[in-house]
Amino acid sequence: MIVQETEILFESRRNAALWPDVTVVIPLYNYQGFITETLNSVREQSLNSIGLVVVDDCSTDASASVVSEWLKRNNDRFERSLLAKNVRNAGLSVTRNTGTSLTNSPFLFFLDADNIIFRRCLDRLMEALKESSAVFAYSILDVFGARRGLMGTEVFNRERFKRGNYIDAMALIRREALIQLGGYHDLKFGWEDFDLWLRICENGDYGIQIPEILGRYRVHANSMLRTVTSESRNQERLKKMMLQRHSWLEL
User: Fold this and answer.
1) What is the pTM of this model?
2) Domains of the chain
3) Of the candidates 89, 35, 82, which has an alpha carbon nearest to the alpha carbon of residue 59?
4) pLDDT higher than 70, residue 223
């Protein structure tokens, strides 16, 4: 699993030396205008015992300072909280892996720095994983901003992946399984979450859907989906690469 060397900018422990069962991992890059709303949604979770790791990927705006000040005001909400900064810009996949390496919580929830989760999100996903042998749990998401709609409305189905991804990275994942698979692979133009779901399928594992709207997925002009990934040339490159990695697809 590829990770990046980091500098710790802030760290707080409420009680235990160990991380709690669930830690939220947030990769951060130039989202000073969104990150506070995202962090507030984590703070308001009904699940009492939570860890929080934010990894700044060398932002050129004030993102890291905004998070540092927020953590100073809210650090008593979390069993453990941590703000780290990559020593070099590493991209989304490596930054997620780096966040994974900074905590030993058995369950990790990956949340992008411009998205929002509703109050019962972590509670409901955790319940589902505890009651099943699934590797990850996800919910329906409300898509808002430059595009409106719903995401994650379909139950987990390996055959459905043949035509493309339909599950966002906003999911609660068993850390042990993620480590076994080598974490997120560093793909140049995106689709890292799609690639992870495919490798989970190929490993004989599965995810479980919670048929409730438990989060909000923001679409805006600066999101990776609307810049790098959606360019037609990059779309073709991604399809070719994914077919090479997963020959059973029908993209």
Assistant:
1) 0.94
2) 6-220 (3.90.550.10)
3) 89
4) no
